[in-house]
Amino acid sequence: MPVQSKKEIIAQDIIQKIRFAQYKPGDYLPSEHRLCELYGTSRETVRKALAQLTSLGLIQKIRGKGSLVLDVQNFTFPISGVVSFKDFDKQQGKSSDIEVLNLSERTSPSTFGGHNLNRRAPSYYVEHLRYIDNIPSVLNQEFLFKEAVPIITKADVINSLYSYLERTLSLNISYSTKEITVERVPERIAKILKLTDDHYAAVIRSMSYLDDTRLFQLTTSYQRPDKFKFIDFERRKNAARS
């Protein structure tokens, strides 16, 4: 298991304190100076931890006042960020169970979500099921191009796919595009997710890219409607400063 850095340990600890209302929405976190004392570390490390919390939408930096804790009780799905379910649950102090249903070598599709990819690439096909409160809630079907991901095991998927890609394979994952629809899903998927007779689910199709703009992952995520909920968090860039 990868060793967490100091900034990650600090960020995780603050997340736990927010989750258990030690720091409530509307409260300010201790000053950077006080956090340095509490965690026995440098101001640079504290600032990196706070930057991570800011990117997650958990705090807002207020000039002259400090770090304001935001109301994130409804943030249940990482719709904007490039992050795995395992990592997101870890950030939110939750646990998750993942079952790998299929791991095999296949050729990627030539089209995806209405996009013509202009090629079919040798890939790993991974199908895994995520349980929430012991209920099968999210079914992911992914193609990982072998030119970027030469090998992968079930343990890599279960332990954290993106941690494996970034820390073990040293991939620099940059961004993804996502399309969200509500669709009637095939009978097999409906049975896996234990859907009702109407067989409708939220479907998220995402295409993920490396920092050199190479497409390396295609994901179709089927989600039970009663378990799917998100509030998007977006920071506006001030046009006057750009």
From TrEMBL:
The domain of life for this entry's organism is: Bacteria
User: Which organism does this sequence originate in?
Assistant: Ligilactobacillus agilis
What is the name attached to this protein's record? Answer: Trehalose operon repressor
Q: HTH gntR-type domain: which residues?
A: 4-72
**In its UniProt record, which GO terms are filed under biological process?**
negative regulation of DNA-templated transcription
- SMART domains according to UniProt: HTH_GNTR (SM00345), UTRA (SM00866)
Which CDD domains does its entry note? WHTH_GntR (cd07377)
The yes or no answer to whether the keyword Transcription regulation is present is yes
- Enumerate the GO terms in the molecular function aspect: DNA binding; DNA-binding transcription factor activity
Q: Which UniProt keywords apply?
A: DNA-binding, Transcription, Transcription regulation
